[in-house]
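Why do we bother with holo predictions? Because pocket geometry can differ from the apo form. Keep that in mind while you read this record for fe (ii) ion.
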Amino acid sequence: MHRIVQLTDCHLFTEKATALREIVTWPRFQSVLQHLRQQFPDFDLLVLTGDIAHDEAAATYDAVIAELGDWIGKVRVIPGNHDNRAAIANRFPGVQPLCSDRIHFVEQWSDWQIIGLDSQLSGQVAGSLGSDQIQWLKERLTASRSLRTLLFLHHPPVPVHSPWLDKIGLQDAAELKLLLNEFPQVQLIGCGHVHHEIVASFGHATVFSTPAVGPKFRPRTEQLVIDLGPPEYRLWELAPNGSWTTQLFQCTSQP
Ligand SMILES: [Fe+2]
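The structure, written out:
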C-alpha cells in the first residue's frame, strides 16, 4: 500500500503572525504536521498542491522546509497561483524543469505513477497547463499505458458550482479532458485552489479537491465566504492491485 498525504492552500507568510482574511495560517499548518506525526508518520510521499507561500517570499519557503524537518526528502511540490515557481524549483526535491519554464514531478511505484503538473499562469489567479505541457503529458502517458496514474494540479479542471471560483479555474480543461479520454489509466486527479472538497468525474478519472490548510471557503456560494472550520488534509492510499481509497482529516487541536 502506497500512502500519499496531500496538503493544499497553506497560504503562509514569512511573518508567522500574519493573518489572511482574519485567519492566522501558520498555526494551522503546524497543527496539520502535528496530526501527521501522530497518525501517519510513515507516509511515502507528502504533496503540497500549491498556494504554499501567500507572500511568494523565498524566506517563507525556507521556513516551510525548516518546519518539515526530516520529511523533506519525501516532499513534492507543485505551484499554485500564489507561489514563486523559481523559489520552489531551487529548494524542493524532485522538481523537474518542463517546457515553457514550467516544473513537474513524477514518482513511480510498482504499477502506479504520480505526476505533479504546473498550472500556474504568471500574474493571474486562473490557471492553465498550456499546449506544451499537455503535449508532454500525452507523451508521458503514451509511454506508460500500463501504469495507473494519479495526477496532481493546483487548479480544478471541473466546475465547482461557485460562479466566482469557476471563473478562475483551469482555463484549458477542455484540452486536458480531450487528452485524458484517450488514457483510461489516469484514474485519479487531486487538486487544490477551491479551499473545500468537491468530487467529480473527468474523462475516466475522479477529481477530488481538498480543503485548505489555510482559510477554507464555503461551497456553492456566489461570493467568497470563509468557513471558520479547522484545517484539513487528504490521505490517498494506492494498492498494488489498483484499488485505492482517499479520505480527509480535520485537525482540531492547535500546536
Ligand atoms: Fe488558495
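The chain has a mean pLDDT of 96.
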